[in-house]
Amino acid sequence: MSTEATLALLGTQAFIDGRWQPGDSAFDVINPASRERLASVEQPSLAQAQAAIDAAERALPDWRDRPAHERSALLRRWFDLIIANQEALARLLTSEQGKPLAEARGEVRYGAAFVEWFAEEARRVEGDIIPSAGRDRRTLVLRQAVGVCAAITPWNFPVAMVTRKIAPALAAGCSIVLKPAEQTPLCALALARLALEAGIPAGVFNVLPADSARSVEIGRLLCASTVVRHLSFTGSTEVGRLLMAQCAPTVKRLAMELGGHAPFIVFNDADLEAALDGAMLAKYRNAGQTCVCANRFLIQAGLHDAFVRGLTERTARLITGAGYEPGVQVGPLIDDAAVAKVMRHIEDARQMGARIETGGKTSGTGFVQPTVLSGVTPDMLIAREETFGPVAAIMKFETVEEAIALANASESGLAAYFYSRDLGQVWQVAEKLEYGMIGINTAAISYETVPFGGIKQSGFGREGSRYGLEEYVSLKYLCMAGLPG
């Protein structure tokens, strides 16, 4: 993190009511590639966290009542500033999260696209007129802002996960309090700095950076607050369950994007090269640290051996290293706990009979070699748990029915992928897979224009697209009587 532009975006205090607020203690943000300290960030006290909620409550009436075109214009200005500062943001992102700089640049553009999209959608929060039940009355439905919202974002996409939640909330007329992941608060604070420069009013967007212990306390405060009407969370299913329980007493609206365990199915009739291209993207992007990352590769017997050879050859050529290094394709894992989990999955699979085709070892502090395992069986940890690392676990199947059963044998239902050129088979598999998003002959499925979210224990609610805006509006039905018949 060396450029002047990046340093100009750096924030190290909470952003509350349009001002940078010193905290009562501090925590370190660590570069996952070097394990060196990037910055010391001051975290707010619980009283300051409550002040952020209060600020959002004060800001709500004016922001909600502004004409939609004014909110749209401010969001558009925020988008323009993000684009103008995209290189600085990308470098900040690589520094605190670790992904290769090329991927970081892509994430910044992807994250900015949500701000642009919802700047446009702000003008389209429309109601309905319903045919009335009597001559003397008219019935209609309004869509109005939910109110004060809270968002808790993960570390793996520290720009895009922020904009994907904040932009629709602001477009709908809500104010919001954000608690970014403790590992990656710097991007969220940089986005808040640009929002302030764009003219988004004080109190409409607040950011509370915190370490793991304080994050739990702030999360509990947000859940218990009667002022906060909506909570959006992206993270593990375990934490999602906890937040749901904490929100139950206040009956909050919730949007939960939780854990994934994506199957990647290749049928005998698939285009092998296309499937291998998709496999590399779905598995190794962000070092396998994505919620829609392919975790289980289910390959039909006729293509199995060729797929294993092809994926092994491609994987062995991947370059691992710090995100700033030229040519690096796979960066570090976020912390030592992440490395330990990935290595535990690899060792469990090896002991239970899987073969390590390539990789399988750590590569310096924070790095795991991109790995391919063959001979994986459903009883192995890697076939039952989300790995969140650069490990491709390959299983062989014989029939379509077997593939569907293996794919659906998970509590998760976020994303799935499959490759086939048989149109009838495509429809059969697409309709029977129990997942909220399915890539058919592609691994690129996420855009600002489409609904992102899962089913089963991967959560509920959608982000992006016009459906994402619905999360932040309430329906109000009006029945007007006493009119001329």
Helix count from the secondary structure assignment: 16
Structural category is alpha/beta
Average of pLDDT: 97
Strand order of the largest sheet: 14-15-16-13-12-18-19
Cα-atom Rg, whole angstroms? Answer: 23 Å
* Low-pLDDT residue spans: none
Strand content: 15-25%
Largest sheet: 7 strands, mixed
Distance between the termini: 70 Å
Q: How many strand units?
A: 22
Helix content: 40-55%
What is the 3D shape?
Answer: globular
Pfam families: Aldedh
Domain Aldehyde dehydrogenase: 20-477
Family: Belongs to the aldehyde dehydrogenase family.
Keywords: Oxidoreductase
Features of this protein?
single chain, about 475 residues, alpha/beta, seven-stranded mixed β-sheet, six-stranded mixed β-sheet, 16 helices, about 40% helix, about 20% strand, globular, Aldehyde_DH_dom, Aldehyde_DH_Superfamily, NAD-dependent succinate-semialdehyde dehydrogenase, Ald_DH_N, oxidoreductase
Detailed description of the structure:
With 485 residues, the protein is an alpha/beta fold. 41% of the residues lie in helices and 22% in strands. The chain is built from 16 helices and 22 strands. The strands form 6 sheets. It has a 7-stranded mixed β-sheet with strand order 14-15-16-13-12-18-19, with helices on both faces. It has a 6-stranded mixed β-sheet with strand order 9-8-7-10-11-21, sandwiched between helices.
Q: In a nutshell, what does this entry contain?
A:
By secondary structure, the chain is an alpha/beta fold. It has 16 helices and 22 strands. Helices cover 41% and strands 22% of the residues.
